[in-house]
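Researcher: Let's continue the batch. This sequence belongs to tryptophan synthase, and it's 455 residues. Same format as the previous ones, please.
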Amino acid sequence: MEKTKFLLGEEDTPTHWYNLSADLPGDPLHAALDPATREPLTRAEMAATMPEPLIDQETSTAREIEIPEEVRRVYTLWRPSPLFRAHRLERALDTPARIYYKYEGGAPTGSHKPNTGIPQAYYNKLAGRTGLVTETGAGQWGSAAALGAAFFGMTAKVFMVKVSHQQKPYRRALMETYGSECVASPSTHTAVGRKILADDPDNPGSLGIATSEALETAAEDRSLGYVLGSAANHVLLHQTVIGQEAVRQMELAEDHPDIVIGCAGGGSNLAGLAFPFLGARLRGGRPVRIIAVEPTACPTLTRGTIAYDYADSAGLGPLFRMHTLGHGFVPPPVHAGGLRAHGIGPAVSRAVEDGLIEATAVGQVACLEAGVRFARTEGILPAPESTHAVRVAIDEALRCREEGRSRAILFGLSGHGHFDLAAYQKYAAGGLTDGEADSHGLAVAAAGIPVAGVA
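Model: Same format as before. Here are the structure tokens for tryptophan synthase:
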């Protein structure tokens, strides 16, 4: 029989996280800036919201950082995750391409997010925090933060982007089942939220707004640790367990990816899968082409500006040097809520800027079409975010067919779509649109990027 699954044992769970900063050519990543002084953040300023070990990880240039034993024990509930060869999809496409996918949907919350939710909860617990506060788009990260809080005996408050709060009630129910409070953002719980609602009662919300509400809440209650699900260096670091496992599993398959594909919002899923392969390439290893796929509704990498900008809409947090659409940008309410981030992680942004990763944007309808095709051949219903990677993997496989070339394609299936059936129902009914970002809205948001911080 043809081999379909490439599995590792619990004893093969990675012992260290991989840090791309050690292998990036050129100058180190730029430090985040204090919003008041526009000077690089000091360690003391970072400590206001981050435990000391996470500050170490955020600023480290060491290639490997040890994973605490207690975190590794929790990881083994779902790690190592399986790598699949998509034989049925290959045959359906009549392609000579060899298609593989790394599946993160077996985690308790159904996506890759607990890979960082668990360590962040662990470090905040050690620091004496009794609760967590965060923002979430589609709810995958909010679910992971809620899970981490439950595992370490903490409370959690999650500000969920309003449109996703309405689209995905069962994500909200999952967070509440774990014992967390889930609030639609913008909300009346914060000054930021009240101001936005006063100006626009029907505001659909954005990750930037939800982040502002979470930061304001953390600033007012020092018993709460602020945690985040993407973009930051330490978050991307935690996710590299995905790629490290995939490297070993591709060896089990006696193959090596020519192309690695990941959906990209804040950057955690993409970095988690791709950074270990990219790092090996930068150290003189085999070549690999890496593709970041984002929605046309929020085209951060393909239409954004490289600048210092806020990660949150109200400008309460630091400024990061990154591809950004402007912290005031509110994307159309597409179903891939986890990809509706106006800015992307500085490490991913730098890799794209240096030509180490290429970026492309695709529409929601084509992505859901690919998700349905994948489900009917491979049996797994992908999350709307993951369908962006599926779409481009299929397109690359079809290109292999046109060129008569066999390439190995590896993509990240970052989570299942069991909480996202409303999106598939709407697609089946023909009621789905791409919801592309309009040029006027992009121009207005870009004008709000801090002038003094332009890179």
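Researcher: Any comment?
Model: The radius of gyration is 20 Å.
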